[in-house]
Amino acid sequence: MAQGRGSARAGGNGAAVLALVLLCVLLHGEFAESAVYTVGDRGGWTLNSGGWPRGKRFRAGDVLQFKYGRGAHNVVAVNAAGYKSCSAPRGAKVYSSGNDSVKLSRGTNYFICSIPGHCGAGMKMAVTAA
């Protein structure tokens, strides 16, 4: 009888190990699917980067890297109204390091530069993530 209990414990431990391995594989797979994109490619986040997302497929969890001269621009995550009006709503997240990473949420993600005149000159971008 003692031998049967040992086998049951070994089977339980094996199932726990298998579950842990499967969890690690699933988590790794989720992160492996995320991609990192440099906005504007080599040109970076500039007045001409608004059309940069065209033709690209983004997924929730992908990361956008905004590279620009610190102090020359910024990146503000806004809602649709802020995008349309080129204004940052109260409480909007502002990035200003010159090398900012932003994780995309499912749906349309809107970004503007809030330096006066920049958004109106086209420094804004809408990125839709599946």
Automatic annotation (TrEMBL):
Superkingdom of origin: Eukaryota
Organism, as annotated: Brachypodium distachyon
Entry keyword tRNA processing: no
Gene (UniProt): LOC100833453
Signal peptide: 1-32
GO terms for MF: electron transfer activity; metal ion binding
GO cellular component terms given for this protein: plasma membrane
UniProt name for this protein: Plantacyanin
A Pfam family hit: Cu_bind_like
Keywords (A to Z) from UniProt: Copper, Disulfide bond, Metal-binding, Signal
Residue ranges occupied by any Phytocyanin domain in the UniProt entry: 35-130
